[in-house]
Structures are given as C-alpha cells and as structure tokens.
Amino acid sequence: MPAPDRSARLLAGLLAGAGVAHFLAPRPFDAIVPRVLPGSPRTWTYLSGAAELVVAAAVAQPRTRRAGGALAAVLFTAVLPANFRMAVDWRSRPAPLRAVAYARLPLQVPLVLWGLRVARGGPLP
User: Fold this and answer.
1) 3-class SS at 9?
2) Average per-residue pLDDT in the chain?
3) CB–CB of 112/83 below 8 Å?
4) Is the residue at 121 inside a domain?
5) How far apart are CA 114 and CA 111, in angstroms?
6) Residue pair 2/8 in contact by the 8 Å Cβ criterion
7) Could you tell me where the DSSP H helices lie in 1-125?
8) pLDDT digits (tens, 9 = 90+) for 45-93
9) What is the greatest pairwise CA distance in the chain?
10) Which pLDDT score, from 0 to 100, does residue 109 have?
11) Which residues form the domain of 93?
C-alpha cells in the first residue's frame, strides 16, 4: 500500500473512531461544547460526531479523498474552541488530566496538517 493511501486510511480510522465515540459516550463531548453555541450540547456532540463519520468516509474513498482531507483540516480547526474550553475547564483537575487537556491544543496543528497533506495526496508529514 503506497504511503499516501496508508496515511489516508489511518486518518479515516482516527476520524471514524472519534465519530463513533461521540455516539457511544457523548457526555465527555457534551461537557466541552462551547457555551456560546445555541441549542443543546448533545445536539452539537451528535452533529460533530456525524461530521467526523462523513469526513472519515470521504477520506477513505480514493474518489473523494482530496475533498475529505480538506474537510478534515476544516473539522480539526473547527473543534479547537472545544479543546480550548476543555483546557480552561480542566485547569483545576489533577496534573495528568490537565496534561491531556493542554496537549489537545497543540495536537490540532499536526492534525490540520495531516488533513491538508491527504488533500494534496502526499504522505503523512
């Protein structure tokens, strides 16, 4: 399997796993939905989970992979406010949990770059 194909399949798997998690265990995701969004946090949790599943499917298919990679980059950018909220809300939690919350912020950068790389048809950076 060529490196770009493997990279895309790994990205699709990551997105699919995250999307499924939104439906199987929605409460942790509800907790990080930014308060400024209208409506129920659960609605946003399910919408973001569905978006991750749709993007995963697009990335997994060679015919839609470039668009899927671009959408993955947009999606990873769009969830940054939730990750920021988590970091703020968890600043009083025990150190290991704070570390997880804080690590999610810079982790978005390589994820966005990964999506863009898949959109260009290149290997994982």
Assistant:
1) helix
2) 91
3) no
4) no
5) 5
6) no
7) 3-24, 27-30, 41-60, 65-78, 80-89, 95-120
8) 999 999 999 999 999 999 999 999 999 999 999 999 888 888 888 889 8
9) 46
10) 93
11) 3-115
